[in-house]
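Re: the 218-residue chain
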Amino acid sequence: MIEISQHAQNIIGSKEAIDALAVKDHARLLVISDSHGRSAVLESIVRGFGAECDALIFCGDGVGDIATLLYKAKSDEKLASCVPPVIAAVHGNCDPSTYPLDKGTLYFSEMIELKVNGRDILITHGHNQGVDWGVESLGLEMQVSECNTAFYGHTHVAREENFKNFKIVNPGSCSRPRGGQPAGFAIATVEKTFVDIAFIKMEMDSSGQTKCSIWNPY
């Protein structure tokens, strides 16, 4: 169960969980972006995959859905057990930088540098880096921050690419995909020497149920 407290860079979780993530071997990250108010979709992904992951990465445009998730988890033990112990969520161009939660307030940064298994990971929405036209500016941000992996959103298009030996990943949109892609998200496995990305698509089957499966967006 996640502790709803915020620390450096507005990362959500206990200090102990954040510190443990920084050195945890074989860490798994649930990477989601651009839910745009579809909190039920975000919740269904967390219920299905969150318990197996060490952190939830949210790349913006839907911070209200993160707040809704945390609010529901306070009274839903089964959901709470699925929420990863660390949440690194940034605000997007359609988000406020703060959001009310009970009697308090959640704060969301524009950019987070998260340490996972000894590696530095950059998380941002991407609109301020002009990702609609390419990832060069984001790559420069990575060089400055000395991060070798970055997650971003904004384009609603799932994509993994390398820029000057840096891995740059967009998980796609879980609610409003573009470019003919299905709605989806990603799971990242962070090892000492590499980061492996699995893209997950969500499709409706003949019975009206959502089915998740691995896919290659290329």
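The longest strand covers residues 195-204.
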